[in-house]
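#onboarding

Welcome to the new folks! Below is a worked example of what a typical request in this channel looks like: someone posts a single protein sequence, and someone else replies with the predicted structure as tokens. Don't worry about understanding the tokens yet, we'll cover that in week two.

Example request:
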Amino acid sequence: MNSPGIVTKLLVGCALALVVGLTGPVTGAADEDPYQRGKAALDQRQYREAVEAFGEAARARGDRSDAALYWLAYSHWKLGEKDKARAALDNLGRRYPESRWLDDAEALEAEMLDQRELRELVGSGGGDRADDELKLLALEALIGADPAEAIPMLDRLLDGEHSMAVKERALFVLAEGGDPRGLKIVAAVAGGERSPGLQESALSYLGVMGGESSLELLSEVYDGTDDPRIKGRVLESFMVAGRKDRLLDVLSKESSTALRCQAVQLLGVMGAVDELNELRRAERSEEVRKAILEAFMIANRTDLLAQIAEEEPSAEVREQAVQLLGALGAVSELSALYEREPSARIKAGMLQAFMVAGDRERVLQAAREEPSEDLRRTAIQLLGVMDAGDELWELFRVEDSTELRKSIVEALFLAGERDRLAELARTDPDVEVRAAAVQSLGLSDGPRAAELLLQIYDTETDREIRQAALTALFTRGDVDALIRIARRETDGELRTHAVRLLSVLNSPESTEFMKELLSE
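Example response:
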């Protein structure tokens, strides 16, 4: 029988087990892990306890020793112990040169600087990359400093022997602060009065800031320079600032067509469609009107482009509107315009727009039904570009015009239909069409075309077609085929023609063949 002492111990053990299950171990992982103890102390702002815990974790040199050194430095800093904090950061850099905590360490080092140290650091000369990185971090700390003290320091830094990255950050701080004294310095740089390597950055920063004072400075720079590159950067800054009114003001006064077109493009990016459409009605420059059309395309305004394609007095502007409609795939608008369009030139542009839009049926309809033979020929060529070999083949079968049939042959070449060209070269009753098919084969790449031309030459009885086949082989630069024909051809005239073509090609093989002829 168990004694009361044992029972009591069992009951106490069960009670302890219950407590552990509900609240965790009395001596938990946080107590055993100094790093976790340090983090818990930081959460409670108990920095002295955090120093002890992180110091222990750093001395253990475990997986988180570099993090422990960083938080050790942070805890010392919070206690006002800068020297000890810097010693911990220095230890971190020496022991763990590849640690991911080094960037945080540099930021902490900059944050610990007082005003005297900031002045000394920013006023020092150029150093290595690490020094420049620290200067960049110090500049961030200057943002919250007294402007009366910070601005002269930043101003001197622009003229000092520092890296361009440090100077650009200083310029940004001056612009971001919005203080009139700082903006005056940025304006001087933007206007090219000083630090020429920073001029474009200054223009960009003024646009990013976007305040009225910054925009006024940009306008002053624009009005005070003759450099179109600088003027263009000012226009971009107006766009970044979201100020359509500034760009429209430039359009009303600027005489340079190139700059006015740039302003239009930027307005298009900003979606200023109504303003641009109003401007278009009074605009005299054809180039500017074209730029407005491109802005409408960016905004996907097919309705305005269709209206311009029909009403615009300038044929070139109308053609551009048609091209942009094709790029947007506006087939329905183009179809309606095509039916009403009196100009054959504009209609040809519409056919090209149908091709760009991938509307093969509409191009085929024009190839079949268009009253103008020139437009039919244009449609046929476009079908070739669209690889519409089957449609062209069916069209050829019903076409009566020799000229159009020859155009279809050319389109079949564009569509890569070598076998069909060979069939026409062998079987079509019209000699002109057959000759055109042979010529097209001569323009085709690959061994298959050479094989077909040799077959045509060997089986053809018509002298004109055989001569066309020789010319086609010459066009391809096929020396071996021409030598083969010249060796076995019994027709003196055809053989002479083949030899003459070989002499023009002037290749090593043809030279050897000429020597062979001389030795006969």
